[in-house]
Amino acid sequence: MRVAVIGAGPSGLVTLKYLITAHKFLDTEPIEATLFESEDAIGGTFAHRTYEDAELVSSKQLTTFSDFRPNADDPDFLSAERYVEYLKDYCTHFNLWPHIKLSSRVTSVRSGVKGGHVVSYVDTATPDSHPAEYECNALAVCSGLHVTPNIPTFEGIENIPEVFHSADFRAKSQFGVDKTVLILGTGETGMDVAYMAVNSPTKRVLLSHRDGFLCAPKRVPDPVILPILGNKSDPTHFNVPVDSSSASLFDTAYVHHRLRDHMLLWEYYDFFIKSTLWLVGGSKYGLGQWIGGISDGRYHASKIFFNKSNKAMPYISAPYRAENESSLLQRIRSSLIQVDIADTHGRYIDLAPWPASFSPSGTVNFTNNNRPEYTRLRHERIEPDIVILATGYTQTFPFLTNSSPTPSALDTRDIWHSSDPSVGFIGFIRPSFGAIPPLAELQAQLWVLHLVSPSSVGLLDPADEPQYRLKPAETARIQYGVDHESYAYQLAVDMDAAMGVGEVLREGWGYGTDGWYKLPLVWALGANFNAKFRVRGPWRWEGAREVLVGELWETVARRGGFFGHVTLSGLPMLVFGTISLLLYLLDPLLELVWPRKRAVMKQ
Known about the structure:
- By secondary structure, this protein is α/β, with parallel strands linked by helices.
- The protein contains 17 helices and 21 strands.
- The strands form seven sheets. Strands 3-2-1-7-19 form a five-stranded parallel beta sheet, with helices on one face.
- Helix 11 runs parallel beside helix 13 and helix 15 (515-525) crosses helix 16 (544-558).
- The two termini are 20 Å apart.
- InterPro entries: FAD/NAD-bd_sf (IPR036188), Flavin_mOase (IPR000960), Flavin_mOase-like (IPR020946), FMO-like (IPR050346).
- One of its GO terms (molecular function) is NADP binding.
- The chain crosses the membrane at residues 573-594.
């Protein structure tokens, strides 16, 4: 079998690795695989569309792959530069380099005369090079190839002295000195750029939004208890990253399907998120976020993507903090419990509505969004020197034919279309709170397994899919959001890689003197780390238990405080475990009076 992989970002590299190592795990002949990358280096977005001091918002524990772990001295959140170095080491460790063709841009993919696919590509390092062809049985699309900056149009924007997309932003020096900088977009890139701007010798920094955002903590909140007594936080203590902290037991693992498919889980976490944010920071709209909240119609855990770039938030909230914290209720709350408030040293970022237009003199006319930020700015004459468009990207697939499926049209686990499973799309999902690379690893495992042995994957029930999908409004730009934990566990179940209770206990008991409790506790209390799903199943790896009882045990054990142990572990396990137990006991009766609806199965 020959397989082509397009794109050398994390998704492409992990797919290539599972293809060339499949014969070591599965009953198959070695697969010949070649990866095509249009750039002259691997790394994808992390290498080619990053900027000074860029840092991953997902933790190293979650983002790194199951069988190639980060260094022990790496911080919880890797820099983009360090992550690219990690990916290069990954290629070296698994000997991927001989299978990677850099500076090779795929121009088209067509059906072969005798079946399969014909990939045409050109050498971008050689001027006027002639197209070459690669015939293959299957194709993994791991890049949009044409990743184009999304450029909104505004009347009069040509009157601004300097306008550029965040794709062209590289360093603080681009802000200049004593300039007014307007950043459009409050995603994680927009937040990063705003934070860098306000900590540069700029005159003023403004950040425009359309309909708010939710600034989420990267770590489990570790607030000061009774600060009124002079208690202070320990600056040397770093709580566990949020994306590594949620307990999977009875949340995604061993959940009865009636509870899993019900909105109760979403409602619980919606309440938990809002109440926790309010309790420790005073605002339900984000951690220490006093302005720019998502509109109530959109603000629900089942609909939103969390913004984990939170360094800019203290600067955005600064002009509004004193007024919002002045009420009696807020004074009482903050005297009992309060997250640390960063000192902005008098600097602030003006949150602003979305621009309506720019005048001939370069003055920005903001849309009246009936929010406090419009009231604050409406009488000011603001003439930006620089406008930075942090407005995202659009991905297109010019090498595919019009009849080829695209990520938005996939019907099987968001990986392939049932009409042609030989074309897999890896990494084209967006978790609300989590990371794409570990999900891409699980997607690659399932797709390669299905390529080699469709019968071992079995029938994939579409009824399992709604439970892991986000539920955005029909008008939302992004319709491919998933819950990281639910989606990861579903893919593991599809591959028969999720351990049962007895197996977890046996695996722990059989691993050293302390494995009997460490492995079961990591399985129950930790997030759905990919290493959990390498202990058994078709991709079983002997090193998985060591990762669980070593590195990941230390991560779970480091989680501390009321919010770590009680709200993220004890309470959901008690509530959902009890409900699931009752449902399992009552299931025969429920099936008689309320049978489960099943859709047509997909192979």
